[in-house]
Amino acid sequence: MGRLLVPGVIASVFVAMLSLSSAATNLNSSKSNIYRVIYDTTVVSPAQASALLAELDKLGPADEAKLKQWLSANFKKHGIEGDRIKKIIVRPASAGRKSTSIIFLKDPADEAQAIAVDDEGAPGKPMKPTTK
Fold first, then answer.
1. Looking at the domain assignment, is residue 76 inside a domain?
2. What domain range includes position 98?
């Protein structure tokens, strides 16, 4: 019986590893290829940003006016207090940036810092809150 048990355990571990690797592939594939969100973590959480990106992917490519309108209408749905976001910047994709960047600012004075973060090209990197 011990001889049959070992191959069975090995086979079940192998099947479990295959299912985990396919789940990881699906998770990575769900990342946005169209949009990038840069945000102050005191206003938007990483989970909220991910949920917004998933919804934005369903929306598809959109111009600045449509994006700002859509975002304002969907903040509450994702638990974001829209009145805490004082400025939204939309930076269209270009040669230097493959995706459209959406920047949420709690303090408009942080605009230069947020644009610098965007220009670094570090995908998914949230803007660190500033202290004054």
1. yes
2. 32-120
